[in-house]
């Protein structure tokens, strides 16, 4: 009985220490991942700027409120995949990190080479921005791979802390990060100066985001490749 009590006590202490240790760095990384995923220029951001230019801030806010549902679904799916890979084994997570890093590098390189406006920009305003946002967010083919790549890149250095018990907290924090990003977008989407500045420097903004994506890619590869080579050497 004393041995069983000590074992139970050690398990409880381990769980508590995991939660306490994840608070300062891991949770901030998830919050930042949700924020970066939400605010980085892509099909959704281009769509909301187009709708805002045509119908104003309220229509843009409606679109983003609907789009947020898609973000929650894809970010949750990405976090489930990341935690699942970590629970299966560090090698699986490292493989995911290499794939994500390569994908982010490809996205960044393509953005840097951008020469004209993206064809993803909407040609007209949606009649029902909220429902259009839901459909847009749930059917965007780039949403899941970008979510997996972004979260993996920022969480790779803290992979050993990820457990299934943390998943609800991770999803909630990614949602809060995305909400903060969308609050900023709603604040600026209706401003004429912002729309003019974005349209005038859209190519430059896209190229800078490409540089950021390549930075995330290098970070993911820096943490994943040593793990893979180390496991092979072992």
List keywords for this structure.
234 residues; mainly alpha; 10 helices; globular
Per-chain topology:
Elements: H1 2-22, H2 26-39, H3 43-55, H4 57-88, H5 90-112, H6 129-139, H7 143-155, H8 167-189, H9 192-200, H10 202-233
Structure overview:
This protein is mainly alpha-helical and 234 residues long. It is built from ten helices and no strands. The radius of gyration is 20 Å and the shape is globular. About 6% of the residues have low confidence.
Offer a quick outline of the entry.
The chain has 10 helices and no strands.
Supply Rg.
20 Å
* Approximate helicity band: over 70%
What is the first-to-last residue Cα distance?
A: 39 Å
Biggest sheet character:
none
Backbone shape: globular
Strand content: under 5%
Report the uncertain regions. Answer: 16-21, 118-125
How many E-type strands?
A: 0
Calculate the mean pLDDT score and round it.
75
- H and E string: HHHHHHHHHH
């Amino acid at each position: 009985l004393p041995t069983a009590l000590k074992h139970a006590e050690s398990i409880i202490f381990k769980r508590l220490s995991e939660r306490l240790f994840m608070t300062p760095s891991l949770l901030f990384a998830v919050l930042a991942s949700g924020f970066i995923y939400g605010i980085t220029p892509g099909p959704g951001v281009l769509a909301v700027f187009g709708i805002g230019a045509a119908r104003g801030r309220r229509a843009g806010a409606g679109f983003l409120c609907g789009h947020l549902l898609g973000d929650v679904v894809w970010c949750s799916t990405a976090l489930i995949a990341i935690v699942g890979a970590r629970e299966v084994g560090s090698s699986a997570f490292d493989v995911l990190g290499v794939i994500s890093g390569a994908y982010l590098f490809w996205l960044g390189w393509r953005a840097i080479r951008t020469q004209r406006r993206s064809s993803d920009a909407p040609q007209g305003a949606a009649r029902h921005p909220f429902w259009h946002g839901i459909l847009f967010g749930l059917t965007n083919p780039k949403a899941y791979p970008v979510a997996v790549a972004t979260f993996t890149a920022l969480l790779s250095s803290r992979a050993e802390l990820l457990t299934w018990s943390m998943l609800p907290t991770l999803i909630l924090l990614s949602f809060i990060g995305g909400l903060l990003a969308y609050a900023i977008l709603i604040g600026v989407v209706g401003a004429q100066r912002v729309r003019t500045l974005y349209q005038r420097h859209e190519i430059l903004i896209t190229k800078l985001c490409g540089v950021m994506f390549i930075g995330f890619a290098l970070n993911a590869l820096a943490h994943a490749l040593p793990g893979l080579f180390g496991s092979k050497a072992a």
